[in-house]
Every structure is written in structure tokens, then in C-alpha cells.
Amino acid sequence: MSAIPKAADVAEAAPQASGGREGDNRPFAFRHFEPAVLKDALRQMHLIRRFEEGAEESYMRGLIHGTMHLSIGQEASAVGICLPLTDTDQITSTHRGHGHCIAKGAEVGRMFAEFFGKETGYCRGRGGSMHIADVTKGNLGANGIVGGGLPIAVGAALSMKMQKRPDVVVSFFGDGANNEGAFHEALNMASIWKLPVVFVCENNKYGMSVSTERSTAVKNIADRAVAYSMPGVTVDGNSLSDVSEASVTAIERARRGEGPTLIECKTYRHRGHSKSDRNRYRTKEEIDDWISKDPIGRFEAELIQYGIVTDGEVEGIRADVEREIAEGIEFAKNSPSPDPSDATRFVYTA
Amino acid sequence: MSAIPKAADVAEAAPQASGGREGDNRPFAFRHFEPAVLKDALRQMHLIRRFEEGAEESYMRGLIHGTMHLSIGQEASAVGICLPLTDTDQITSTHRGHGHCIAKGAEVGRMFAEFFGKETGYCRGRGGSMHIADVTKGNLGANGIVGGGLPIAVGAALSMKMQKRPDVVVSFFGDGANNEGAFHEALNMASIWKLPVVFVCENNKYGMSVSTERSTAVKNIADRAVAYSMPGVTVDGNSLSDVSEASVTAIERARRGEGPTLIECKTYRHRGHSKSDRNRYRTKEEIDDWISKDPIGRFEAELIQYGIVTDGEVEGIRADVEREIAEGIEFAKNSPSPDPSDATRFVYTA
Amino acid sequence: MSELANAAGGRELSYAQAIQEAIAIAMEEDPRVFIMGEDIGVYGGAFQVTGDLVHRFGADRVIDTPIAELGGAGVAVGAALTGMKPIYEFQFSDFATLAMEQIVNQAAKLRFMLGGNVSVPLVMRFPAGSGTGAAAQHSQSLEAWLGHVPGLKVLQPSTPHDAKGMLLAAIDDPDPVMIFEHKILYKSKGIVPEGRYTVPIGKAAVVREGRDLTIVASAIMVHKALAAAEELAKDGIDVEVVDLRTVRPMDRETIIASVMKTGRLVCVYEGVKTLGVGAEISAMIAESEAFDYLDAPILRLGGAEAPIPYNPELEKAVVPQVEGIVAAVRKLARRER
Amino acid sequence: MSELANAAGGRELSYAQAIQEAIAIAMEEDPRVFIMGEDIGVYGGAFQVTGDLVHRFGADRVIDTPIAELGGAGVAVGAALTGMKPIYEFQFSDFATLAMEQIVNQAAKLRFMLGGNVSVPLVMRFPAGSGTGAAAQHSQSLEAWLGHVPGLKVLQPSTPHDAKGMLLAAIDDPDPVMIFEHKILYKSKGIVPEGRYTVPIGKAAVVREGRDLTIVASAIMVHKALAAAEELAKDGIDVEVVDLRTVRPMDRETIIASVMKTGRLVCVYEGVKTLGVGAEISAMIAESEAFDYLDAPILRLGGAEAPIPYNPELEKAVVPQVEGIVAAVRKLARRER
Lengths: 350, 350, 337, 337
Ligand SMILES: Cc1ncc(C[n+]2csc(CCOP(=O)(O)OP(=O)(O)O)c2C)c(N)n1
Ligand SMILES: Cc1ncc(C[n+]2csc(CCOP(=O)(O)OP(=O)(O)O)c2C)c(N)n1
Ligand SMILES: [Mg+2]
Ligand SMILES: [Mg+2]
Hints:
The complex is a heterotetramer, with two copies of chain A and two copies of chain C. Helices cover 43% and strands 9% of the residues of chain A. By secondary structure, chain A is α/β, with parallel strands linked by helices. Chain A has a six-stranded mixed beta sheet, sandwiched between helices. Chain C is built from 13 helices and 14 strands. In chain C, the strands form three sheets. In chain C, strands 3-2-4-5-7-6-12 form a seven-stranded mixed beta sheet, sandwiched between helices. In chain C, helix 8 (160-172) links the parallel strand 6 (153-155) and strand 7 (177-182). Chains in contact: A-B, A-C, A-D, B-C, B-D, C-D. The interface between B and D is large, with 46 and 42 residues.
């Protein structure tokens, strides 16, 4: 976890956040979280992976129309960030949001149903992959507009503060989004008003086809935190533990009323940007290299190494996830489609 | 001139820029520019001041309708920045743009005419104070939209580069504009493409009624240069010499193809934001303090101190300026108004 | 007039004061209501609409934002999504061009995209229109843009009475409501009842009854239409004037009934004529049951096909004026089918 | 068909290929022309319109921008003001909501505000419309917004032939020209002449002659209208189909002449019905000399008053389809005045 200017605040705050025994040399997550939480984090990572593979398969079988943006390879960031969140904390998500949605507690059956355009989907089939939201779990929604969620998250954080709620808001966005004006305006306002919001940049090196080197005038997105006088940290986004450490620190800071933090998770998407990507801008070597750094395998290995799970338990988790996905797809398939005569429902409340 | 991170480049570049004799301890402008240039800079500062006072008087007399934004107190920034520019260099200006316009070589008669809504005005009476532009002198125009000129300046700089012209672009903007998304997007693009553009923030402490402390998450606007990997310098915007030093350095850097610079001129507007300002957000003490730092008096004193002008010459300059203003107002008054039947002319070229 | 006003439980207030009163009432009643925008605090707003509200309600509920319209609008959307009822003031409607993403892609669509699981109880206020000598970037009338967007409601109150009542209706509304306030009206006065009352969204008002011809006008044009009607009455032309009041959803019933009565329609609006509000009024009538009652073409007097010029005579020339309305109506009223 | 094509000096190309060819011709002819946008380089554009242009012209003239639509549009404006002729590609027209400030306050108004001292020779391309399952934020039709803005010209080519010819006309034009390209049309094919030719801005096209009723349709709706006309011909209803092609400036002459001939008008467009393009067509006719020739109300079939839904059946339900056009025309054609 490499700190950048102003990250001093984070470093100071960190000890408070890290629980566990004295002299415990294990990575942060293993000191800070109960084994049950860690096991569930692994389950969620598998669930995200298999959800997206299931969506891919469903797409091939013609069950899904439209496009989709898969986050395969980025699961540690979604799960690690959401670990310290409660159901009343809020998130805003992105076009690549299935991981955030699952990590924030959504059911895969209703997610598949949304993907299949069914009335039982989270958005009753009106939103699709790019708008999946489970507001009952504090997920304000994926967003089809790059950077669109950033000011909304700041508004939600203002709302929490005005209502004196203890809740915080996490805003996920991509490296590509960091060049949008919305990023600048949102971070500035969050900082001047000291709002309880954490900005999480999932830097997967590309905004669609354009690399951060070509699009962004700084090396690390977190370097931009200085421009908003907020802590900025860049972490290995494929390490569940590193991500969760940054998240715990930032969220505790936000809950204490000390204001926002910018976290950058360096990670990679294994798949193309969307279904129409012909992958002309990345090399096979680069992709393979990142596949070898797969966050799920790494976390699984750590869990086994530190004796949190056995090989057998891992198998059990995988089998459970498999069943959950299969059931979710069945549920979605068998769900009713919206009635076309209802096409203009839900435009207005009243 | 206080440097901030990344300003190292500027410091290094500075010696190249400063001309003059060895062991010359006078401020930069006195070493770098010929006496005639310095005298003309003083004349321009007076011309700007008297132009705006003339506009104010004309407004009182009902010769001008609409509003106006006066830059009285900010003349060193307009003139100091434009000193190293040629007529083929370009600028984009702001709603508070009379100073930039005059410093870039416009005639006050045609400016008054525009103010009075006359056919002889720079915009044939269609634009008024907020849109005055003299494109023949490389002034692409004032702008009614805060931050609106920033991306346009980047586009002009791209244009200079594509046409392999030696010209550079200066984009003036206010402290208030630095929180607009346009600022972020423009500076990022200018940096990644290494364009010949200089961003000049005239920080007069307020965006309308809101102080930078309340609106902006950094202390110095130039601190934000780090987020775009470009040099950022904060200068005393009421010192003609300090401003011109930053300008010469940045413009030479831009001309060498090394990319953009962010310059922040700390200054103050003596008048209200516009005609409707009831001044509820500044104290009399603050205003008086800044009036005592008036840039024109300071520069005049320096010119006399270093023997560039005599008291008598200063009187001469003032008298000349007085005459120029009086003639300009007469010209404008006696100019014809546009014909109302021409109201929809100039919407399209063809 | 003030005695009359008191009798009716009202007083003379300016349009700006009426808006301020509505905001104050809503903020007193409901802690979820707050207002944000540029220079609305100590400055009191560019048009002095918020005035001293910051002193009554504090800077935490009368929030000065940085100059950042896209972000500001998005903050309002996020607050509305999570339990608050924000009012967002654009300093000039022209700057809303920076915030269209949040208004149109987010505020207007979120409820629908999320399958009805959320509401966005948000009010946005847009000082609009020409006549202040502020030229092309500070004088636009963009109500037709937002009128084109499902999910939004779009209002154009023309009197202090309606400005207060419609704003209170808008704050009560669970969906995003956009209010275009003509800047020239801010100082206009009228009788305004004390306390809370609402003027329904989606209802036009027949502000002058007449037999010969219907003018549907919006915002400041209502007053010009009424002045024209007085003038025309002298010629024996009896004009009915309908104040549109709501652009979206448009009050078909009232307008259709008026045109079926008079047989002639003139639409008067300040926005650019092409694809402006009057285009919809005209098209709505031309496809309605009123079509068969039309005795003459449907005329539109809208803004010229040009930006708003700075010069004051040119500025007047590009928007409908009383004389122009009178001339157009005279011609149309006399036309035989 | 390909023999015929060769005879006419053309070949079958897709709409996307036709656009690419126009860009290539202009860039070859004129060093001032360049194109910028998101992922238009090695990726070839989200809809593969630019394809391999970056390999032919280099990354300095086929410029991948950061994801920053407001800034990108402003850069294009600045380049156009200073001697270049940029083409700016929005990845989806929906994202242009972020850039309205530069399009509307700057590009459209600069020439006017500066008293005619500058021109802004800028072309912007907007992939628009529904039908791809991309839901509410990737499927809008916003041509009516820009059609409302003086200073802009707004095109909606419906065929590969026109897509190429109108783009070349747009690049030749000294003023800002906005081109809405329906995404579903990108893969549609048609005969396209080789080399340079232009299709005039501001001219509608009668694409099917008929006696009984006029349909004015735009973009993809032209094809649906033609299909409906075939169907209606079987009933003996002879429909004239006019392809609008230019929203601004609208071709009054062609449309008025057609309506004066047939006496009946149906406007078909995908954008939201209220204040959409058809509102202007209808209102323009209702105030024209064609009014007296109308034998029936003017109908509009536009997009539903809702955002575009994700579910494919709902998505179809909210925009006009061939069956709906047939039914509406049948009813209107049979109506007695
Ligand atoms: C405002 C806006 N511009 C462009 C797009 C098209 N688009 C969708 S995702 C994407 C890339 C986003 O990159 P990044 O933020 O890094 O997220 P990632 O896809 O890498 O997860 C683009 C250009 C969009 N949806 N919204
Ligand atoms: C986009 C936009 N928002 C708001 C305004 C209204 N406005 C005009 S000038 C101004 C203050 C600008 O402050 P700053 O950039 O510091 O410039 P200054 O007036 O201090 O020179 C504001 C809010 C505007 N013209 N454009
Ligand atoms: Mg990315
Ligand atoms: Mg300022």
C-alpha cells in the first residue's frame, strides 16, 4: 500500500482500525476481521465471478440482449471495499457494477432476472445490467454515465450528514471517470463540506481502449487527492486484505466526521470492455500476467495459509456458489416478463 | 513568487528567460524588458483603469444597459501576463475581461462602442461587455460562462500545434472557475497532449460572494497543478514584475513545446462583483487593505525608483490616457446603433 | 388594491418575494427541505430571491455551492434519493446546460430505470429569459428542452400568486419539478395569500375570457398577451388568454376547450420559435378534437431564430412584443376560412 | 444489386462505412480536417465508424480523447475558431448532455456574439436512438433539443448515401453542423457513389410519391414509414413519404407542397412525442398556406412519454413501429372532414 502526499492522516488513523493480537504479522484483514467474515468474503468473490460467467453463458444462449460489462478479475476491490459497510451505508456504482451489487448484499436471482429483463428483476426489467440497484441494501445503483455516480454520492453523503445518520457513502468509479469534470466537482465539494464519503477508483488501466498513460496526466489517480486536500491511497486492488485496510481506514475516518478519502485500487479486467470489444489495445502477455495475479486465487491461498479455511471448505463454498447461481438463473428464466402495456409505468410517482 | 510542488521546472527555466546585466538586482521585469516596453505597460494599466472608470461613469449616465464586471485593482495581472505575447498568440478571456482585451491590443473606442451597443463596436453591439473580442489581435473573446474559455483555449492550442504555428495560447479564468469541471478536463487534456497553453488564474479571493476558503479545497489554486503534472506557480498578482516573470517563463516553456503551466495571480477587485453587488461578504478593512496595494501605484513607484520614467512622464502618460478615453467615449457615443431589422444577421455564415 | 388584498388574506408581494415566502414556509414545515445554489447565502441570490433566508435557516440549510453546476445538480439528486427534499437554484438557466446530464439522465430517469423503487423529490429553479441586457449566454429560454423529457415536470408561473403556489406544489411533489422563472417578472407585483396554499401542477388558467380567438401564452408573454387583448378589445376583437403555467404535463383539456370555443389559436412564447413550447401547443391542437373547430391557421409568435443580442433595441426585436401580438391577432381574427 | 450499383458509379456500403468514407475523403483533401472522440483510434469507435482511420491518418489526426465530453467539445470549438475543421464524435448522443454548454452557449452563438467576426466550422456526430438493449441512458433521441438552437444546423440522414453526402456537406459548411446517426442504421446497407459528392443541408426528400396522405419521417422512421406505405398500398391507400433529413433549417417548401397535394399529414419520429421533431413539422404546417388544404387532423407518432426501457419488448413498445403507423394512417386516411 503506497501512500502519497497527505496520506499521513490515513497512516495515523490506521492503528485504530487494525484489531487483532499484538505481534500478529498476518495481513490486515486477517487481524481485523473474524474468520466467518473472511470466509464470507471468499464466498462473495466466487459468487461475483460465477455470476458474471453465468451472465456470459446466458448471453451466448441468447437469454440476454444488450451489452454487459464484466468485472472478472476485479472482485477483491468490490468485496474488500464493502467489507466494513452496513446495510444502511450507501454506495453508488458503475456500468461495471455486478461486483459492487453482490458485495453490497444483492441476491443473484433477482440480478439475473434483471439481466433477463424480467418483472422480478431488481428494476422490474426496466434497467438492465447498467442500472441494477438494490436500494434496500443501500445500493443506489449502477450508472450508465461514466462519472455520473460521483456527485450523487456526494449528495447522499450530504444527506447522511444533514440527517445526522451514522452512515457513510462509497462511490465506485473507474480510471476513465477520473478525467470527467464530475470527478473534480464532486471531490471538491465533498472536501470543503467534510462529507462522509469514500471515493474508490477501480483503476484497471484502461477506460475502454485508452490507457491511463494516454488519458490521465498523473501516474496514480490517488495523486489527485492533493488537489482536494484529502488523503489519497493507492493499493494493490487484487489483494483483498490491502483493499479492506484502505477501506476500513477511510470509512472510519468518514464516520468520525473527518471527511472524504480517495482510494485507488490497481486492478485489471480479464474480459474485454464489453461484448463488442475486439481487444486491439492490450497484449496477450499483459492479460496473462494479470490473470496470474487473480485476486480470488490469492485470497484463497492466504485463507488456507493462515488456517482460516481448509481445502475442503473451499470446495464447499464453490459448490454452494454453483448451486446459488444455477438456482438464480432458473428463477430468472421462469420469471414473467413485464407486460408491454406497462411500458410507461414508473415514469412518475404521482 | 512562491513555488509549489512541480514548480521546479519553472525555476530551472527562469534563468533562460531573464535577460539584463550580470549582478543586476532589480526585479525581473526591469532586467528583462526594454524601458519602452515598461512604459507602455504602465500606459496600458492606466488605460484599463480609466476605461473601466469611464464605463462606470457611462453606466451612471445611462449610456450602458445591462451589467458590467470591473477589474479595477487587477491590472497588473492582465498586463503582466500579456507582455510577452505577440499579436498571433491567442487568449481566451472572462466576464471580467476588459483588462485582457486592452492588454492584448484592443482600441478603447471600439470597446466603448461595444459597451454602448453600437454597430462600430467589436461585436457590432451584439455581444456587449461579456463577449468583447478582437480576433485580429488574437483575443478569442470574453466569455459569459465561468470556465467556458478553458477548453476553448486548449482547442486553440491544439490548433497551433497541428498547424505548426509558433504561437501560444493564454487562458484567463477566475478562482471561482477553478471548481468547474471544465477546468479539470481542460488542464488534463492540455497536459497529456503537451499543448502550448498557459492557464492564468486571477485569484481575487471571491467567486462572486463566495470566498476561496469556502469554495475551494486547496489553499492555492496553483496547488492543483500537481494533479495535471504541470508546473504551478503562485505569484503576487499586484506586482507587474512578478506576474511578467511567471508569464515569460511559462510562455517560453510552451513555445519550446514542453507543455502547459498553471499560474495563479493573487489579486483583488476593488469594486463589487457586478453592478448589483451590495457587498455583504467583504469588510471595508479588507477592501482598504487591498486598495493600499494597488498595482498601478506600485509599478509607477518602481519605474520611478529605477529611473525608467520621471514624474513628468507619468503625468504625460496619464494625460494621454485621459485623452484616449475621452475620444473613445465620444467615438462610441457618435456611432450608429445597429438596425433592428438586422437582429438576426450573423447567426450563420452561409 | 392593498385593502382588497387584505380582504382576500393576501398582500402585494413581488414575484421574487413570493418565491422566497414559499421556500421559507416549506423549510419551516419540513426539515427535509433545503436550498442550495450559487451565492444564495449572504449575497441573497443573483436576483435576491433567497434574500436573508440564510440568516433565518442557517448556512447548513441555505447552502452556497462552489461554481460547479453539474456537481451541484448531482448533489441535489443524491440528496433527493436518500431522504431529503432539495431545492436547487441555477443562477441563470443558461448554466443548466452544464448540468443536463444529471437533470436528464439521472433525475428524470432514476425512478423509471430502477423500476419504481425510488423517487427523486427535487425542485430546480431556473431564472430565464431576456430583457436584462445580459446578452446571448444569460438570456435563454430553455423550457422546451426540459418539456421534452419524460420524468420531469416543467412549470412557468407568470404571477407572484402562482410562483408561490406552484413552488409549494413542486416541493410537495414526489418527482423532479423544474421551474422556469422569468427574470423580468421577479420585480413584478401581485396579490399573494399568506401561508400555505398550492397551485396545481398541470393546470392552465384562463386569465381572460373571450369569444373570438384564443391566445395561449407562457410566462412573461401572458402579460403581453393581456395587454394586447385590451388593445384588441378596442377593435371589437374579444380575445381569450390562457396562461399555460405548466409545460409538462400540458393541460390539454383547458386549451382544447378554449380553442373549440373560439376557433382560432395564437401561441405566444419567448423561447425560440422552432421547437419551442408553442410548437407543442399547436401540434397538440392540430391532432385533437379541436381541429375541426379551427377557422384559421394556428399562429405562433415565438423568439426569433437568433441568440439574444446585447443591444437593447435588437434584444426587443427578437422576442414577441405587444404590438406584434396585436398585429398578428388582428390579421388572424379577420381571416375568413 | 451490385451490378446496378457499379453502373451508377456506386457500391453497396453500410451506413457506418459510408460515414467513414466521407471522413477519409475530407481528411485526404484538407489538412485542416481531423476527428476526435472517445475510442475512435485503435478501437475504431464504439460503432466501428472510424474503423482503421487511425492507421491511415495517424493518431495526431484521429485523436482519442480522455472521457471528458465537455472539455472535448470545447477543444473542438477552440480548434474550429482558429483555423481547423474538427469532427467531434460523441460515443453516444446521451453523453452530449455533458457538453451542452459548449455546443449551445459557445459553438452555436460565437459567430453571432462576436458580430460575425468568426465562424465555427465544426461537425459533431451523435450516435442516437434505441433498439440496442442499452436502456435509458444510452438510447435517447435528442435532435429536437439542438433543433431548437439558432446557430446550429441539425441533420438526420437515413441512408448510407445521405450519411456520406450530408457529412461531406457538413464538413464543407462554415457553421457548426450536428449530425444524429441512428445506431440501428449503422449496419444498414445501400448504394453509395464513390468519391466526393454532397447532399444539401436543408432539403427534405420525397422518397415515395403518393396521393392520399403524407408521412414526414426522420432517421430510422423513414424505413418504417416506407414499409408501412407498402402495406397500406395493398389497401389502396397511396402514401407519400418525405424523409425530413434536416431538422434545422427545416425544408418548409417540400413538406408544404406534399401536404397541399395530399391534404393529410402524419409525422413519425422516434424522439419523445412531446416537443419532438414532429411537433415542429405539425406546427409549421398548421400555420402555413397548407392549412387550408388539410382534410384531417395532423397526427404525430412519436416516442412514448417514458425513458427507453431495457426489456426488449418494452423497448419496442415505446417507439413507433410499422403496425402502429399502418393503423394510424388507415384511420386518418379514411376520416371524412
Ligand atoms: C459520460 C460517458 N462517456 C462515455 C461513456 C462510454 N463508456 C462506457 S464505459 C467507458 C469506459 C470507462 O472507463 P473506466 O471509468 O476506466 O471504467 P472501466 O470500464 O474500466 O471499468 C466508456 C468510455 C459513458 N458511458 N459515459
Ligand atoms: C457557469 C457559470 N456559472 C455561474 C455564473 C455566474 N457568475 C458569473 S461571474 C461569477 C463569479 C466568478 O468568479 P471567478 O471565477 O472567481 O471570477 P471573478 O468574478 O472573481 O473575476 C459567477 C458565479 C456564470 N457566469 N457561469
Ligand atoms: Mg478502467
Ligand atoms: Mg474571483
